[in-house]
Amino acid sequence: MTGQARSRSVLRFSLVVAAVLVALGLIVTFAPSYAVRYLVGAELDALGIEYDGLETLEIRPWTRELRLGPVRFGQQASARGGVGDLDLTLRVNPLLRRRAAIERLVISDIEILVTHGTDGALSLNGIALDELLPGRPQSAEPDTESASWTAGVDALELRDSTLIFQRSDGGTLDVEVERLAMTDFRAWEPDQPGHFELTAGVNDIQLNWSGEVRPFADNITLDIDSRTAQAELPKLIRFTGPLGLD
Questions:
Q1: Between the CA of residue 8 and those of 12, 15, 19, 20, 234, what are the distances in Å?
Q2: CA–CA dist 167, 116 (Å, integer)
Q3: β-bridge pairing 71-74 and 65-68
Q4: Region 100-121: what's the mean pLDDT?
Q5: 178 with 199: CB under 8 angstroms?
Q6: pTM to 2 decimals?
Q7: Angle at CA of residue 153, ends 150 and 159, nearest 5°
Q8: What is the rounded average pLDDT for all residues in the chain?
Q9: Nearest to 92 by CA among 62, 114, 122
Q10: Are 194 and 213 in contact (CB under 8 A)?
Q11: Taking a C-beta distance cutoff of 8 angstroms, is the pair 46, 66 a contact?
């Protein structure tokens, strides 16, 4: 083989390798997003849940990020809620120790309507919660596989979100979250406290709370510094109903 022919063979081989690498890179970059969109959409369709904005779901394997929003969902047009923006960064190394660890999670503009029916059932944006959280079948064998996994989050922030809870008797609880920040909540460190800061309005009662909590410890503890303003009785009665007091 002449030197020129050899050079052409090397060039062709290099082009084939480059094309394969580019194709693999494109698959790794884009395939996870399409796969997860399809799986989530199929599950929502099976549950009869209407939605739009699912095409905004994007998984970025190279940076360990998942992004979503704006997206809306529900089973009734009047009760549809949504998420304005969700940005999640996952830590990979803890997965090797069976730990689902979130490095950072920022969510904004959530709209959730929870209703309590006369039969005692709860619905979220018109979706019966027993559809979303079906009861697990009883099993004589403990699920040691799932029990060995733990979860945690380094930093979570919820911004500018609304939760409305409506009781069957007409009581209403309006929660307007300006900001909720949570740090260092890890199930594999049960005795280490997680810290939180909350600025919110509950039926126009202003809350400014901060503190620490050990939700995974054998003895759950809560240390809170609370500041509450404008807590007039009529605002409470909007949820509890008449208290029988003058």
A1: 6, 10, 16, 18, 85
A2: 5
A3: unpaired
A4: 90
A5: yes
A6: 0.78
A7: 140
A8: 83
A9: 62
A10: yes
A11: no
